[in-house]
Amino acid sequence: MNQLFSPLKIKGVTLRNRIVMAPMCMYSSDNYGFVKPFHKTHYETRAMGGVSLVILEATAVESRGRISANDLGIWSDAHVDGLKEIVDGIHRHGALAGIQLAHAGRKCGVLSEDIIAPSPINFDDEDLSLRIPREMTERDIVDVIYAFEEATRRAKEAGFDVIELHGAHGYLINEFLSPLTNLREDKFSYNEAFGTRFIKDILSSVRQAWPEELPIFFRVSAEDYAEGGNTSYTISDALLTLKDSGIDLINVSSGGVVPARIHTFDGYQTKFAEIIKARTQYPVMAGGRIKTAQMAEEIIRNERAELVFLGRQLLIDPYFALHAAEDLKQEIDYTPVQYSRWKTSR
Ligand SMILES: Cc1cc2nc3c(=O)[nH]c(=O)nc-3n(C[C@H](O)[C@H](O)[C@H](O)COP(=O)(O)O)c2cc1C
């Protein structure tokens, strides 16, 4: 069997193959974070197309944690019903449903909102449209931790199987984890355990609200692509301090902490995942410009990662997993029954 199509059990859930839909903001909500018909069709279609896990886009745990005014939200109980409809649509097709819980921190682009960060440093000095964030007080930190816990409780109510905490791309959690953005001198400082105190406290609250048998993923930026910033090695050191905090898998991405030119190529982030896996022994998910079944299969077969994520390829090919099965000549049994005739046309 191709390893890409082998199931993977993580805690109490089993993914039917190793192909995961990466979280991708669709900027299609209203100004209040509610689910729209577009979201339901969009996510259900990818589940129908055979991925094992659909991870919903960065979903804001506080209204000031939005990247844009059109982000999805999970900061109020009123958001649960819409999210549950998406979850039900994903489950109808045998995929698992995940949600990325996020706070934009200094990258909040909603002008009416308070903009907060570990330290009062702008994302880009040259962009005059960006506001300088307010340095978070300990009270702010407690509030945001509570917001993550409440969001987790709502994710459970909506029926999600996986939560992913967004610690990448220069958003709030990542801002604590990078020496370029965390200049604090208190217990949340970068010098105290690589800035992991904030995420550690989030994890300990979130674990109270999330069933023990369900997994928690953590997405990190393995490289800041800037002098003095994080690399796969420093991020590995940070992750080692979180070993007993309840993370089940690391989703390895990169960039976004400071403006930087990133040279991308097919598979450009796989090496980072491999380094983190080797140094920390966490299971990892690799991705970044994976477009072919062969590349995905190679990563899994060579045990470079436990899972692969696909983002943009799934935007143009929701049926990537079915195409991959065809390319790799793999029999699969989860084609939607209505579509099973595709096999007889070959
Ligand atoms: C339209 C779009 C929206 C994205 N939104 C998110 C997001 O909400 N959260 C996140 O962690 N990454 C986000 N990303 C990054 C993707 O998850 C993924 O890591 C990136 O696109 C690289 O994978 P790919 O080459 O397969 O697309 C987004 C990417 C795209 C293209």
TrEMBL record:
Pfam families: Oxidored_FMN
Keyword Magnesium part of the UniProt annotation: no
UniProt keyword terms in alphabetical order: Flavoprotein, FMN, NADP, Oxidoreductase
Root EC class: oxidoreductase
InterPro entries cross-referenced by the UniProt entry: Aldolase_TIM, OxRdtase_FMN_N, YqjM-like
MF terms in GO: NADPH dehydrogenase activity
Name the UniProt record assigns to this protein: NADPH dehydrogenase NamA
Taxonomic placement: Bacteria, Bacillati, Bacillota, Clostridia, Eubacteriales
